[in-house]
Amino acid sequence: MATFTWKGGDDVTSLPVSLRVGFYGAAFGDTIAIASYQQSNYATNTGAENSGSLPSVRYIPASGSSYAYWSGGSLGSGSGSTASMPSGAATVHINFSHTSSVNFQGAKFFAYDGSDPTNNSTTVSNKGFSAEPAVTTWVDCDIEEGYVNIGSSVSPLTEHNFYIAVSATPLSAGGHTDIAYRIEFEYY
Predict the structure, then answer these.
(1) Is 65 exposed, middle or buried (0-12, 13-18, 19+ CB in 10 A)?
(2) How far apart are CA 71 and CA 55, in angstroms?
(3) Pairing relationship of beta strands 78-81 and 92-102 according to DSSP bridges
(4) 133-151 pLDDT tens trace
(5) Is it true that the peptide bond before 133 is cis, omega within 30 degrees of 0?
(6) pTM (two decimals)
């Protein structure tokens, strides 16, 4: 039997299906300027409830596609190459476990509008990369634009872990809840 568990990358805050990743300014509830990226992340329902902080990985457009600033969580903060970021500093840790040893293939992580996994959010734009397995270049991860291509496993295991960094910028003013994240792959 297959099971998915979502947590913050530092494994401190759980993300059950009732919660989502919230993107904010310097603190919970703070707004993000249009064309800027978040400074903090929290587990939240629709933005009204703070259910715990998550590590925040910020895309910095002027710095290139392989540079990030990370903060929060048990690893503190830092900046530099996306390849040097510890996996525990990633925004989310997705654990896939199975009662049998399995491989996976065609793994991809993406953002969508929260209702239909083939539609982008119309209010938020997302960038992402995989800290583990390492695919450390920022890509557009809104499903109509692209996705974080995680690839395939190299050996069968009963547990596979994915550490994904996500950064978001609003496309319009106001609070936005039409966004969700998804991982898809085939296992065998």
Answers:
(1) middle
(2) 6
(3) unpaired
(4) 888 889 999 999 999 999 9
(5) yes
(6) 0.91
